[in-house]
Amino acid sequence: MSMIVDSKEILNKVKEVPLISSCASQLLQINNDPDHSLSDLVNIIKHDSALTANILKVVNSAAFGGRAHVTAIERAVALLGENIVVGIALTDTAAALFTNRLTGYAGEEGSLAHHDLKCAVAAKKIAGHAKKVIHADSAFTCGLLHDIGKAILSNFLKGATGKLVNAIDAGKLKDFPDAEQKLFGVDHAYVGYEIAKHWNLPEPILSTIRYHHKPSEADDELKPIVYSVHLGDMIASMSGSSSGADSMYCSLDSGYTEFIDLTNDDLGLIMMESIQEYEKIKLSFGDKGDD
Predict the structure, then answer these.
(1) 218 located within any domain
(2) Does a cis peptide bond (omega within 30 degrees of 0) precede residue 34?
(3) How far from chain centre, in Å, is Cα 120?
(4) CATH code of the domain in which 255 resides
């Protein structure tokens, strides 16, 4: 299958992606530090009036109702939890990427945000089963960002998705990331990695985005968290939150068993718990309705 678009044209689009806010960048950096505290986040958030207002709006919304009206940002952050707060900051500052309809993937409007959020929830739970200690909040953040490259690649895929699916079904291509690579010279994971570099994001976010479909290629020290997101990605798709036609055409790397200790019962429980938690918090990420 020949390339229809040079990869340079795609990667040039990455340079046009607006930078995330300084506040969001700092929150992501802190969230990846296992020694941080909630007060570290509050000290950044309180200097961003728009984010502060949005967090207070969320904590006082119907989704988190049943408590007295919250006016202090410290209380709001404590009630929501840092993952939701970081997610709000990220989806606010990069809303165009998360909410655009992934036409090239035959995805609905908001499907990327839905899928990424459920992956993040599942990845955090899977991290608790890692044979090596993983910072669970970092796994959540990595899951939230893992498919961001689709927001760019989608426009280049228009009109080609059906042909790629047929080629995979016929055994001519391994899976959808392989199809992207053959078509463009890059897949959505690599494009996402380039966006993360453009945003100056730290490890393990960079490697998790780049290798979430090929976790065995990540550095050994990062494989546990990359496999956590890899599995979270699969769980999100299997539980009804796909980001498009590619979701059921991605391969499971069974090598996760070397790094993650999970039984089939564990996986079933994580899927159920992830669905429940996702339903609880999705409104805080700007959800406007069902998937």
Answers:
(1) yes
(2) no
(3) 6
(4) 1.10.3210.10
CA 10 to chain centre: 20
Give tens-digit pLDDT for 91-106: 888 888 888 788 888 8
Amino acid at 178: D
Which residue range(s) make up the domain with 222? 7-18+99-285
Give yes or no for a contact between 193 and 149, defined as CB atoms under 8 angstroms apart: yes
Q: Is residue 270 part of a domain?
A: yes
**What does each C-alpha distance from 250 to 103, 169, 193, 242 come to in angstroms?**
18, 12, 18, 11
Asked if the structure places residue 290 within a domain, the reply is: no
Domain count along the chain: 2
Of 46, 67, 93, the residue that ends a domain is 93
- Answer yes or no: is 14 within a domain: yes
**From the first residue on, what is the mean pLDDT of each consecutive set of 10 residues in the chain (291 residues)?**
73 93 91 88 94 89 70 92 88 83 83 90 96 92 94 90 88 91 94 96 95 97 97 91 79 95 94 90 58 43
Q: Residue written as tokens 């009036």? A: 49
Token pair 């893992």 is found at 146
Q: Are 23 and 119 part of one and the same domain?
A: no
pTM equals 0.89
pLDDT digit string (tens) for 243-282?
Answer: 777 877 888 999 999 999 999 999 999 999 999 988 888 7
